[in-house]
Write a structure and sequence with these properties.
By secondary structure, this protein is an alpha/beta fold. 37% of the residues lie in helices and 25% in strands. It contains four helices and six strands. Strand 3 and strand 4 form a beta hairpin. Helix 3 packs across helix 4. The radius of gyration is 14 Å and the shape is globular. InterPro entries: RNaseH-like_sf (IPR012337), YqgF (IPR005227), YqgF/RNaseH-like_dom (IPR006641), YqgF/RNaseH-like_dom_sf (IPR037027).
């Protein structure tokens, strides 16, 4: 994939890839912030591509960031390969630059954040995938901010 001038990006979508659901967040480099958007259901890691397309048409991102679930020692996990395949499919389908970002501990951090907000368990009813997507996108923005 061609190199992209990260300074020219105005809006990004972040995806926290999972086999049952995929968290989605939106972020802006100019503010350096990201927020939860939604959760997409997935069947064995395959999303409803029409819903992904609808999000891309609605938000018109300049690029996409997909979380890369690495092992704690930094080596690729079984899910890393699937997340990279998902990233390649996003790039191929929508012809947008797609970056991957280390997402270690984002789900843990998202659960911690929800715990501080008073949520105790119940993550099936109130999943944290979109918040995890926002945290990984926030991390990418911080790592790639100018200056």
């Amino acid at each position: 994939m061609a190199e992209v001038d990260k300074q020219s990006l105005r809006l990004l979508l972040g995806f926290d890839y999972g086999t049952k659901q995929i968290g989605v967040a939106v972020g802006q480099p100019i503010t350096g912030s990201a927020r939860e958007l939604c959760i997409l259901k997935a069947q064995n890691g395959v999303p409803d591509w029409q819903k992904v397309e609808a999000l891309i048409k609605e938000w018109q991102p300049d690029a996409i960031v997909v979380g890369l679930p690495l092992n704690m020692d930094g080596t690729p996990s079984d899910m890393s390969e699937r997340a990279e395949k998902f990233a390649r499919r996003l790039n191929g389908r929508f012809n947008l630059p797609v970056f991957t970002h280390d997402e270690r501990l984002t789900t843990y951090a998202a659960k911690g954040e929800r715990l501080q907000q008073g949520q105790t368990g119940g993550y099936r009813q109130r999943p944290v995938d979109a918040l995890a997507a926002a945290l990984l996108l926030q991390g990418w923005l911080e790592e790639n901010s100018p200056g």
